[in-house]
Structures are given as structure tokens and as C-alpha cells.
Amino acid sequence: MEYRDLAKLMKDGAAELGVDLNETAISAFSVYLEELKAWNRKINLTSIDSDREVIIRHFLDSLTPYRYIKGTERLLDIGAGAGFPGIPLKIADPSIEVTLIDSIGKKVYFMRNIIRKLGLKGIEAISGRVEDKSLIGKYGARFDCVISRAFTGLGRFLELSLPYVRTGGSIVAIKGPSYKDELKGAGKIGLDGPRIYEVKVPFEERFTTLVIFKKR
Q1: Does the predicted TM-score (pTM) go above 0.90?
Q2: End-to-end CA separation in angstroms for the chain
Q3: Neighbouring residues of 60: CB distance < 8 A, sequence distance ≥ 6
Q4: Residue scoring higher pLDDT (164 or 179)
Q5: What's the rounded Cα separation, in Å, for the pair 18 and 130?
Q6: DSSP letter (8 states) at residue 68
Q7: Model confidence pLDDT, tens digit, residues 69-87
């Protein structure tokens, strides 16, 4: 995809989601796209190989929570994989302090490569399992928002997130159509909610569902 086409797709799509991307951010997404494609030839980061589909289904979809997490100072992305949604949210709002956790070392190396390539500050990628007591001891109750996209079932995600979010903070699950079934089995001890928001994905006839809880 030509840079000008990528820039228009990103800027117009982000605007639909309430995000005003400047030239620095658009350039960062261009580098992110090229690195994702290069690394994807060696390790399995995504099954999507079209530039347009990566932009829509990964970059823009990662920005769907943007307007709902305004005011967040510290964000934790659990099961971040190739950096979604944490890195796109960081690019869109550099003021957010972001921590990315994944248990697969190769994916963590990729995220660290992106952070280094883009010169991002106030963001780190950690290799580990969120249930590990050492991580909970270091990062427990530190975050204003814990978020995840296509990581695990809602009940399990809430269980894993609870130790990391501060009182009054939010837990945000980015979900597809199956979220209603997952809600039935989700324990909500110590949480208020959920608030449900269906956000139209730019350029597509589908919606991403945000399921948001608040820690009492």
C-alpha cells in the first residue's frame, strides 16, 4: 500500500473513532505495519496479510476503546501478542504509560522491537504469565485500566485482571458477538458493571463490543 493511501485510511478511520492522528502517529503506524509483515514471515503474529486488513482489523480495531479510556494514566495490556491494543493506543495517546504482558517470548521480542523502532517512551513489554505471584507483587493495584483483546474468556480475564487494577479503575474486554454467552459465566466479585458499548469498526459492517467493569 502506498504511504498516502495508508495515511488516509488511518486518519479517516481513526477520526470515526474520535482519534485525531498527527503525521508522527501515522508514520509510526506505517513502520509498525512493515515490521509486522517482516516478522510475520518468521513467527506467527497474525493470519492477516493484507495491508488494508491489518490497518482495519488490528490498528483501527485496537483504537475502538480510545474514547472510553480517556483519563487513563497507566494501562496494562494482558496477552498483548503483537501489541494489540496497547501499542496502537500508545501511538494515539503518547501520554499513557503502557505495560504489555505476554507469555510467548517471541511475541515479546517483537513488541520490544516495535517500541525501540518507534522510539516510544513510557512503555514496556514483559515476558511472563499474569497469574505469577512475582508479577502481581510488582505490578499489583498499579493500573487505572487493564485491557485485553481476544485473550481468553471473560470470566478468566476478570479473574486475572482484578489484582492489577486499582480501586476505581476499569477492566476493559474487547469482544466479538460471543460476549453475551461469556457474561453468563463471568464472576463479578468486587466489580461494578458491566457497561456495554458496541463500536462500529471503520470501513466494515461489523461492530466491536467493549465490556467494561469498574473495581469497587
Answers
A1: yes
A2: 46
A3: 10, 13, 14, 17, 201, 202, 203
A4: 164
A5: 31
A6: G
A7: 999 999 999 999 999 999 9
